[in-house]
Amino acid sequence: MANIIVLGAGLVGGVMARDLAVNHDVTCVDISDENLSKLKGIKTICADISNTKKLKSLIADFDLVIGAVPGFMGYKMMRDVIESKKNIVDISFYPEDPFGLDKLAKQNKVIAIMDCGVAPGMGNIIFGYHDKNMKITDYECLVGGLPEKREWPYEYQAVFSPIDVIEEYIRPARYVQNSSLIIKEALSDTELVNFDEIGTLESWNSDGLRTLIKTMPHVPNMIEKTLRYPGCVEYLKVLRESGFFSYDEIDVNGHIIRPIDMTAKLLFPKWKMKEGDKDFTVMRIIIKGFENHKPVEYQYNLLDKFKDDTISMARTTGFTCTAVANLVINQKYNQIGISPPEFLGNHFKEIKDYLEKRGVKYKMRKKS
Asked: Is 26 exposed, middle or buried (0-12, 13-18, 19+ CB in 10 A)?
C-alpha cells in the first residue's frame, strides 16, 4: 500500500482519488471545500497549492503525487513537485513544453509522467505500443467528450476548467504531413464523420499531438482532431474572432479585465454538468504502416458512456492515469525524467486490462 496525494478534487481528480483509495492510502487536496466534501471516506486537505512553499510542505511525506489541476497551473505545479524529489503522474493539460523540466527531473531522480489522460494519454500509449512493433506511416486520432443531451446553443458540457477548454479553441493546431510540420488555427478543416451508435459528428484541428511531434519524428503523417456536434464550431469561431477568447487586457468603464476571464465566467454555467446530466467519450484511432514488411492497418474504437454515477470523460481520463500510477508504485515503470505517455507503449496491455476491469473498453480491428 502506497501513500498517495492527489492534487485537485474536481470531476476527474475525485474519480482518481476514489479509484486509488481502494488499494492505497490516499489524501486529496483542493482549494474548494465543495469539491472535497464529495470525497466520502478519503482524507482531504483544503489548501491553495499555487503557493510553492505550501505545496512542497503538503507533499513531503507522500510516495507519489497525482496532478489534476487546471492547465494554467500544471507546469509550475509539476516543477514544484520535481524540485521536492517526488514522483508524479499528471493529467494537467498545460501549454508549456514539458521537456523544459526533463533536466530538472533527471537531476532529482524523479519519474514524471505527463498528459496521462485519454487523448493525449491512452492514444499515445497505443501509438507507442505499435511504434515498437511496426513501421508506422500514418496516425490519426479523432476524439471528443460530449453530453448525451444536445442543448442549444453550444451542445457541449465541460468536465475541465473552462479556460482549459477555451485553450483548445485558440491554441494553434499542429500536425505532421509528409514529414513536414503544419500549423493551422484551431477549429480549422472541419469535416463530418459518422460514428456507429452516435451518428454524425464534426471534427476540427486541435493541438492534441503535443509531444508526439518531438518523440515520433520518423512517422511522416500524424494528426489529431477534436469532435463536437455539428454546427457548434461556428459559434466558437464567432466568439474567437470577436475577441472574447483574448488574454489581452482591456478597459471596461475603468475596470481592467481579460476578455477570456469574462467569457469563462459567462460560459461555465452553460457548460457545467448538472445533476442528472450524462456524457459519452468517443475516440477512433487509425494506425497504418508496415508489419513484417506487409501493409497493415489497426483501428481502435472507444465509445464509453456515463456509468456508475460517474461521467465518462472522468473515467476514461482518470483510470488511464491511475493505471499508470500503479505501474510507478509497483516499480514496473521507473524511467527517470519527463515521460510523455507514448513512452509507456510496452505497458499498453496492462493499462488496457486495467481499464477494461473498470468498464472502459477499446475495441481493435486489424486489416492486412
From this structure: buried
pTM of model > 0.90: yes
298: which strand partners? 287, 366
Q: Give residue 276's pLDDT.
A: 86
Q: For residue 331, how many C-alpha atoms fall within 13 Å in the half-sphere facing its CB? A: 1
Tell which residue, 320, 283, 274, 276, has the closest CA to residue 304. 283
pLDDT in tens, 25-66: 999 999 999 999 999 999 999 999 999 999 999 999 999 999
Q: Helix, strand, or coil here: 300?
A: strand
Task: Kindly state the cell numbers that stand for 253.
Answer: 468603464
Longest dimension (CA), the chain: 68
Does residue 341 contact residue 324 with C-beta atoms inside 8 Å? yes
What's the chain's average pLDDT? Answer: 95
Q: How many CB atoms lie within 10 A of CB 219?
A: 20
- Please list the alpha-helical segments (H only) found in 10-135: 11-21, 33-36, 52-59, 71-83, 102-107, 122-131
CB–CB of 202/192 below 8 Å? yes
Q: Which residues contact 232 (CB under 8 A, 6 or more apart)?
A: 153, 154, 155, 156, 202
H/E stretch holding 262 reads helix 259-271
Residues with Cβ within 8 Å of residue 148, at least 6 apart in sequence: 277, 278, 279, 280, 305, 306
Question: In what helix (H) or strand (E) does residue 169 lie, and over which residues does it extend?
Answer: helix 162-170
